[in-house]
Every structure is written in structure tokens, then in C-alpha cells.
């Protein structure tokens, strides 16, 4: 069977459709690459892209995308609710078919070196590609964000894995890694009080004593005058979506706040949604073979 790697680049532009289209165009209609999804958010000022292909084609595609990202995005003018440290902020590689995690790590290193050398962008390896344990967690790497990295990068402990040890004012820096599939899942609350979302995020996320495989932060959705708890579920098999959702509902009650909706960013494994269906419908002895589309 063919080798397939999934790549989910996040770039720091979610408001200008012309720029977004020019960047996404680097993937459209390209042989050996399949663009699966992309979504932009004006409040986050960020676009998340998902595409797949062979290791060789993914390597070519992400560098072509990087070329346009670095041409059109200027971090000196960027602002948004989502944490970020660079124009091409995050690039994870995920093994999908007949590909090992080691191959994804090798690809992450290859891409990181090329970006560091060609564009003079400091690059940090994270998750399974991390060269230091303290760099495994993306939130730790990105702490301080773009503005804080001008000082942070001078700390010998935060010398980049690739590229210069000087912050690139226009392009920022980048995190490139290899990881297992995750689910980006956000829960919206019927309040505009960001402190409530912050308090809920603190108790839900693992670092605050919450659910083991959950990262969470508060986000203000100014256009809708509400806040949300934005999450990454880094192992949906061990911490299901419905567990995080129910915990947020429970914690929101203490503030007299209700959950008014949720959203999935990017793609989600079918198994993650099956878990939710089994839980909420209390289906007994359910198998994915009972799903019509899986039998076609």
C-alpha cells in the first residue's frame, strides 16, 4: 500500500480571503497531494489546513506553502486571540498509512532545516520530534508568543533546533513536529466573560489537574460577543470528546453559564465521533461495521 502522511499546517492569517486563497492555491490540483480541508477564523486570525500525500510530495507541498506564507504574512502587523509565534506557526506531520513515526520525525527535521536555512526562521521541533523533553509540549514552546520570543530566544535553553538564534521580526519563528492524530474541539459559552472561560479551561486541562490528554485555553469571540474553551485532545482514544464536553458543562454550571454550541476544527477521526454516539445514545455492542458508509 502507498505511504501516506498527513500534514496540518497552521498559518497566522484568518481575515484576508485573498491572501488565504493564494496560500491554499499552492495545494490545489497538485499531483500526489490531496487537500482535505481548511478553515479560517477571524477572531483567532488563523487558518488550519489539512492535506495528505506521500512523504516526498508532502515535503514539496509544505515548502511551496511556506514560500507563499512568508511572502504575504508580516507578524509585525498580526494580532488575534489564538497563541502564535510565527507566520507559519505550526507544522505537524502525522503517520496515516504504511508510515512510521520515525519517518515523520525524519521529515520534520528535513523541513525544519530547509525553512531555517532558506528563510532565516528559527525552528523548534516538538512532540515526538522534540530534541528535549521540555520542548515536547507545543504550549511550552510557544509560551511568550511572538512578542516574547525576542527575549526568550536569547536564553541558551531556547536555542532553536534549526535556523538562526535571532528572532525574525517579519516571519517570527516556527514549531515543526511529528505526532499522533489529535482533535481540535472548541466549546462555546453563553457569556462574554473571559475570566469564566479561563477558569473552566484551567480545571479541564491536564496541566491544571484536569483530563489527562486535554490542552485548553480561553478564547474571546468578539464578533459573536461570547467566549469559548478551545481545546486540543491529543489522544481521543484515552480522553474522549464527550468527557471533555461534559466536564465543561459541569464546570460552567457553577457560574450560571450554559454551553451553546461546539465546533471541530479541521478533520476528526470517525472513531472519535462513534465514541460520542455510543455514549449519548447508550448504544450497546456497537461496531463501526454498522455504519453504512464503511460498508460501501
What this model shows, in words?
Helices cover 32% and strands 25% of the residues. It is of the alpha+beta class. It folds into two domains: 4-178, Formiminotransferase-cyclodeaminase, Chain B, domain 1 (2-Layer Sandwich); 183-290, Alpha-Beta Plaits (2-Layer Sandwich). It is globular and about 55 Å long. 42% of the residues are buried. It is found in: Cytoplasm. Keywords: Cytoplasm, Folate-binding, Histidine metabolism, Transferase. Its main location: cytoplasm.
Which structural traits does this protein have?
Formiminotransferase-cyclodeaminase, Chain B, domain 1, alpha+beta, 296 residues, single chain, Alpha-Beta Plaits, globular, 2 domains
Summarize the structure.
The chain has 296 residues and is α+β, with helices and mostly antiparallel strands. It contains 8 helices and 11 strands. 42% of the residues are buried.
Helix and strand topology:
Elements: E1 4-7, E2 10-11, H1 17-24, E3 33-41, E4 46-53, H2 55-72, E5 88-97, H3 101-119, E6 123-127, H4 138-142, H5 145-152, E7 174-178, E8 183-189, H6 194-204, E9 214-221, E10 226-233, H7 241-253, E11 259-265, H8 270-281
Parallel strand pairs: 5-7, 6-7
Antiparallel strand pairs: 1-4, 1-5, 2-4, 2-5, 3-4, 8-10, 8-11, 9-10
Helical content, roughly?
25-40%
Under CATH at level 1, the class of the largest domain stands as: Alpha Beta
Spatial gap, N to C terminus:
20 Å
What is the string of helix and strand elements?
EEHEEHEHEHHEEHEEHEH
| CATH 4th-level superfamily of the largest domain | Formiminotransferase, N-terminal subdomain
Largest sheet: 7 strands, mixed
Rg over CA atoms? 19 Å
* CATH-derived topology of the largest domain: Formiminotransferase-cyclodeaminase, Chain B, domain 1
Amino acid at each position: 500500500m502507498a505511504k501516506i502522511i498527513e500534514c496540518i499546517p497552521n498559518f497566522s492569517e484568518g481575515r484576508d480571503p485573498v491572501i488565504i486563497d493564494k496560500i491554499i492555491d499552492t495545494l490545489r490540483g497538485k499531483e500526489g497531494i490531496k487537500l482535505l480541508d481548511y478553515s479560517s477564523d477571524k477572531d483567532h486570525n488563523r487558518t488550519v489546513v489539512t492535506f495528505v500525500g506521500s512523504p516526498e510530495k508532502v515535503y514539496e507541498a509544505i515548502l511551496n506553502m511556506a514560500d507563499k506564507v512568508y511572502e504575504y504574512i508580516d507578524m509585525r502587523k498580526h494580532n488575534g486571540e489564538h497563541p502564535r509565534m510565527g507566520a507559519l506557526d505550526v507544522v505537524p506531520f502525522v503517520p496515516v498509512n504504511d508510515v512510521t513515526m520515525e519517518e515523520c520525525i525524519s521529515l520534520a527535521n528535513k523541513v525544519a532545516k530547509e525553512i531555517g536555512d532558506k528563510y532565516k526562521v528559527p525552528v523548534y521541533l516538538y512532540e515526538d520530534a522534540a530534541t528535549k523533553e521540555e520542548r515536547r509540549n507545543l504550549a511550552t514552546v510557544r509560551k511568550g508568543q511572538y512578542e516574547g520570543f525576542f527575549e526568550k530566544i536569547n536564553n541558551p535553553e531556547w536555542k532553536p533546533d534549526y535556523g538562526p538564534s535571532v528572532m525574525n521580526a517579519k516571519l517570527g519563528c516556527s514549531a515543526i513536529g511529528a505526532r499522533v492524530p489529535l482533535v481540535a474541539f472548541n466549546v462555546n459559552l453563553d457569556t462574554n466573560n473571559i475570566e469564566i472561560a479561563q477558569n473552566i479551561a484551567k480545571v479541564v486541562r491536564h496541566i491544571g489537574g484536569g483530563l489527562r490528554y486535554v490542552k485548553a485555553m480561553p478564547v474571546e469571540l468578539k464578533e459573536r460577543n461570547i467566549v469559548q474553551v478551545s481545546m486540543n485532545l491529543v489522544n481521543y482514544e484515552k480522553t474522549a470528546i464527550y468527557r471533555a464536553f461534559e466536564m465543561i458543562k459541569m464546570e460552567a454550571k457553577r457560574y450560571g453559564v450554559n454551553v451553546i454550541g461546539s465546533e471541530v476544527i479541521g478533520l476528526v477521526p470517525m472513531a472519535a465521533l462513534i465514541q460520542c454516539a455510543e455514549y449519548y445514545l447508550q448504544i450497546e455492542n456497537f461496531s463501526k461495521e454498522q455504519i453504512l458508509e464503511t460498508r460501501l
